[in-house]
Amino acid sequence: MEAAPHQILMDEATVRRRVTAALSGLGFAPAEIASTLTSWLYAEYSGKTGHGLERLPWLTQLVTSAKVVPAQPLTTTVNGFHTDVSGERALGYSAADAAVSQAVRLGREKGLAVVTMAGCYPTGCMGQYTEAMVDHGLIGIAISHSPARVAPYGGASAVFSTTGHSFGFPSAGPVPFIYDSSVGAVTNGQVMAAYKANAPVPAGVLSKHSAGQAERFDEVFGTNGAFDGIIALAGGDHAHKVSGWAGSLELLMRLALLPGAEERTRQENYSIFVAIDPAWFGDAAAYRALVSGLQASINGARPVPGAGAPQFPGERSFQSRARASRERVISVKPGIFGQADDDEETKP
Q1: Which DSSP state fits 335?
Q2: How does pLDDT run across 281-332, given as a tens digit for each residue?
Q3: Do 207 and 124 belong together in one domain?
Q4: Residue 111: closest CA among 292, 249, 274, 285
């Protein structure tokens, strides 16, 4: 593996040590640090670096501004197949891991589990959580809401969050079917990365609250470095379809606002996790074979001219994680951990 331009290589052990030291210094508990590392490494190895180590300075700012409180306890309430996980500015990475563990346990026990979560921020790639459920033979669904940044079709103000969502299905083959996406034309992480890299503003995907397309990043970023613009819907000419999908996901997530006190409805950060056990419908092995059959059909579809063979959702990122996890070397931007980064450079 070669380092990207203006980046250095670090072995995973060094990254773990550096992240652990930084998060310990902020007051996070060992379990919170473990969940954060799992999430960031999953993102790095999947090629989704905007959800990875680049979030360390941002998470530090969240703690400094008391938007995230380290070692904050969670309140868990179980009612049949539904569990609610609530935190008052608790760390979302560890809360989501707790939610997924509960979804797996209840999904195996009852055939269906729904876990709502609110007041916990931030979370990682939604595919990380569905894949964890799939590893237990379950169908997994994960959807997460953050502050509104995306305009509806035909609208010029933010209504939806970027709404990360994933659907995961267990397969008879070695690679699960993991669909992981969001409703914006770009993710907030991609916007932040482009801003920090001083890259050009993507055409047609960002606008200002005062209306009109953004031509410069400083038009959609506040003096504190926080994004303060509007992201267009994904889908281009078919964005009206994505708008309906975004609204449907939003309404499903709003089940997470019902438990607890009335002020819960004012939460900006909430998620829902669903686990379904195919064994409650019949032969689980037969279902996995059906999933594998669809994967094979997608791979075997005739490619369009000039393109490679089609891949099913999750295949490319799974292969990327498999390669990266063998090398266990990560390309890191200088300064993520402080001035001593260059001393930790690794030559694999």
Answers
A1: T
A2: 999 999 999 999 999 999 999 999 988 899 999 999 999 999 988 889 998 9
A3: no
A4: 274
CA distance 286 to 279: 10
Count how many residues are written for the chain.
348
Cα separation of 215 and 288, whole Å? 48
Q: Report yes or no: 162 and 148 within 8 Å, Cβ to Cβ.
A: no
Question: Where among 169, 198, 231 does a domain terminate?
Answer: 231
141 and 211: one domain?
Answer: no
Q: Give the range of the structural domain holding residue 216, as residue numbers without chain letter.
A: 186-231
Q: Model's pTM, two decimal places?
A: 0.92
Shared domain for 66 and 103, answered yes or no, is: yes
CATH code of the domain in which 32 resides: 3.30.1370.60
Catalogue the E-assigned strands of the chain: 8-11, 74-79, 82-91, 112-121, 139-145, 164-169, 177-181, 206-207, 230-231, 270-276, 329-332
Handedness of CA 158, 161, 162, 163 (dihedral sign): negative
> Tens of pLDDT along 92-111?
999 999 999 999 999 999 99
- The predicted-structure confidence for 258-283, as pLDDT tens digits, reads as follows 987 666 767 789 999 999 999 999 99
Say yes or no: 14 and 108 in one domain: yes
CB 182 within 8 A of CB 143: no
Question: Is 302 among the domain residues?
Answer: no
Q: At what angle do helices 12-26 and 55-64 cross, to 10 degrees?
A: 10
Number of domains, the chain: 2
Is 66 inside any structural domain?
yes
Same domain, 218 and 336: no
Tokens representing 17 are 């040590």
Does residue 113 sit in the same domain as residue 210?
no
Q: Are residues 215 and 271 in the same domain?
A: no
From 53, 50, 46, select the one nearest 14 (Cα to Cα). 53
Tracing tokens 């970027």 back to the chain, one arrives at 162
pLDDT bin (cut points 50, 70, 90) of residue 250 is very high
